[in-house]
Design goal:
Distance between the termini of chain B: 29 Å
CATH topology of the domain at 7-255 in chain B: Amidase signature (AS) enzymes
Number of helices of chain B: 16
CATH architecture of the domain at 7-255 in chain B: Alpha-Beta Complex
Distance between the termini of chain A: 47 Å
CATH architecture of the domain at 5-43 in chain A: Orthogonal Bundle
Strand content of chain A: under 5%
Largest sheet of chain B: 11 strands, mixed
Radius of gyration of chain B: 21 Å
Largest interface: A-B, 51 and 74 residues
Radius of gyration of chain A: 23 Å
Helix content of chain B: 25-40%
Number of strands of chain A: 2
Largest sheet of chain A: 2 strands, antiparallel
Helix content of chain A: 25-40%
Strand content of chain B: 5-15%
Shape of chain A: flat
Order of helices and strands of chain A: HHHEE
Number of helices of chain A: 3
Oligomer: heterodimer
Strand order of the largest sheet of chain A: 1-2
CATH superfamily of the domain at 7-255 in chain B: Amidase signature (AS) domain
Chain lengths: 100, 481
């Protein structure tokens, strides 16, 4: 299975990932190799098999619900402490809405 | 302090003994462990951050308990290292990534809180593959870890620093994480005990998410008993993780000492294909040893094993592509500027992530993208059902499964770094345990002719860690005394 450089750039856009011109052909080669290996799954008939999303444990349906007890959440200051750019209690990002 | 403390020989029990006999105080032990770890670190690069303040604060509490004669916790005064994908409040947690080089978490992981409540002293944070993605620790943004048993070789990964620290003796026990073999494979490469508990046994709260349906926290130790003590101290339901289980926690320390006579252990044919003859011979001898102790050995088949690698790399990359979307230049310390919001996201992720993380985000995004979801992701989830069913079918007739951990012992640094698929193949015997969610561990069982450690893998039924530890403990006692 081949993944063209055009495909790689399209997927990188979906993933919000900037790839350099050197990274694109390398990625195309590596992903192609892995996808070729993965094709072996097609040999397996899974038409009547339920998909498994999670390892489950035996418990009552409502077991994971807890009492609704108020607690003190992370403070605004602590939550923003790792932000590369923050001010007035908010994260700051480049301008998103252009008012014209 | 009468005689200098020999850190590589300490166990949880000997630490307790030394404290109670006043051979050393917890403070003296913490200082000695920190000094030793700092002095040894240039050899292996196992630690990324040291935490003297945190360790000394924990030591002070333990010494106060001793002075007052109050009861000591299960891990009183035990020097503990923590893999750097597990968050620690106020203590830098990098995930081995440039993306989080300066990240100071505002909270503690539940597992760390529970071990500290039992008196453990966190001495530092341990190097690992970036976001736990790798099998050799060569994907760390802060340089590879070297295997203390052979410094030109990898310690395994992704929890390479956690295995190396225990092997080197700079910590008595450490925490790692396992998504596809990241505890058992480095434990086997470094000649220490490494445990991947049942999925849900230990809360994942505070474990930086890689693939949520596969991620486990587990211990490394030099003895089976120490690994069981750490697991028991951190196991159990946590309201902060809805996937953490309510299952009762057995007294592993007592149950492991029961004889293994009459236990039925399976040898899956599929795990004895494609391994080096040396590894095969060492595993075979270990199986014989257990047979001589009274275990009944049966040949079994786990027929879908050969599909595990493909299944795993679809599921783990899909989950990773979603989990790692949060590193976008807004919340987590670094930002590369861009003209638009999307450019800022893309530039930040382009400079913040390393090659393997990018590869997995790309593969995961691809398999989840429009038109491919059923062909890849749903298909992989169906294959996962078949792999899990292999185990539940086998466990109808047997109590445990024995297998190698890795097809070969530790390889040379740089040997496989340019070929991702070959690197992935070093995990073929460990991926299934995570996919099925069963408990599994690596216990040292010999060495190659070059003196490289080899680990025996033991699987047990869901939540039956007690039987897994029993096999491991009986084997360890029969071979090391």
């Amino acid at each position: 299975m081949n993944l063209s450089e055009k495909d790689v750039r399209y997927v990188a856009d979906l993933a919000n990932l900037r790839l350099s011109d050197e990274e694109v052909p390398r990625m195309s080669h590596d992903l192609g190799q892995i996808l070729t290996h993965i094709e072996q799954l097609n040999a397996l008939d899974t038409s009547n098999v339920e998909p498994m999303a999670q390892v489950l444990f035996d418990a009552d349906e409502t077991a994971t619900l807890r009492e609704d007890i108020p607690h003190t959440p992370l403070s605004n200051k602590d939550a923003l402490a790792n932000a590369p750019c923050a001010g007035a209690g908010y994260y700051k990002v480049p301008k998103v809405i252009d008012r014209t | 302090m009468s005689t200098p403390i020999s850190l590589p020989e300490l166990t949880i029990a000997s630490v307790r003994d030394g404290l109670l006999k006043k051979d050393f105080s917890a403070r003296e032990l913490a200082e000695a462990a920190l000094a030793f770890a700092q002095a040894e670190n240039p050899k292996t690069n196992a630690y990324l951050t040291f935490s003297p303040e945190r360790a000394l604060a924990a030591a002070e509490k333990v010494d106060m308990h001793i002075a007052k004669g109050s009861p000591l916790g299960a891990l009183a005064g035990v020097p503990l290292g923590v893999k750097d994908v597990i968050v620690t409040k106020g203590l830098r947690t990098t995930c081995g990534s440039r993306m989080l080089e300066k990240y100071i978490p505002p909270y503690d992981a539940t597992a760390v809180i529970r071990l500290e409540e039992e008196g453990a002293m966190v001495i530092g944070k341990l190097n690992c593959d970036e976001f736990a993605m790798g099998s050799s620790n060569e994907n760390s943004a802060f340089g590879p870890v070297r295997n203390p048993r052979a410094l030109d070789r990898v310690p395994g990964g992704s929890s390479g620093g956690s295995a190396a620290a225990v092997a080197q003796g700079t910590a008595v026990v450490t925490l790692g994480s396992d998504t596809g073999g990241s505890i058992r494979q480095p434990a086997s490469f470094c000649g220490v005990v490494g445990v991947t508990p049942t999925y849900g046994r230990v809360s994942r709260y505070g474990l930086v998410a890689f693939a949520s349906s596969l991620d486990h926290i587990g211990p490394f130790a030099r003895t089976v008993e120490d690994s069981a003590t750490v697991l028991r101290a951190m196991a159990g339901r946590d309201e902060q993780d809805s996937t953490s289980a309510f299952a009762p926690i057995d007294d592993y320390g007592a149950l492991m000492k029961h004889s293994v006579k009459g236990l039925k252990l399976g040898l899956p044919a599929e795990y004895f294909e494609g391994l080096t003859s040396e590894t095969g011979a060492v595993i075979e001898a270990a199986v014989k040893k257990l047979e001589s102790l009274g275990c009944e050995i049966r040949q079994i088949s786990l027929p879908h094993t050969k599909y595990a690698l493909s299944c795993y790399y679809i599921i783990c990359t899909a989950e990773a592509s979603s989990n790692l979307a949060r590193y976008d230049g807004v919340r987590y310390t670094i930002r590369a500027e861009g003209a638009t919001l999307a450019d800022m996201y893309r530039n930040t992720r382009g400079v913040g992530f390393g090659a393997e993380v990018k590869r997995r985000i790309m593969l995961g995004t691809y398999v989840l993208s429009a038109g491919y979801y059923d062909a890849y992701y749903k298909k992989a989830q169906q294959v996962r059902t078949l792999i899990a069913r292999d185990f539940s079918d086998a466990f109808k007739d047997i109590d445990g499964i024995l297998a190698p951990v890795s097809p070969f012992p530790a390889f040379k640094i740089g040997e496989k770094v340019d070929d991702p698929l070959t690197m992935y193949l070093s995990d073929i015997y460990t991926l299934t345990g995570d996919l099925a969610g069963v408990p599994c561990m690596s216990v040292p069982c010999g060495t190659s002719k070059d003196g490289l450690p080899i680990g025996l893998q033991i699987f047990a039924k869901h939540f039956d860690e007690a039987t897994m530890f029993r096999v491991a403990y009986n084997y360890e006692q029969a071979t090391t005394r």
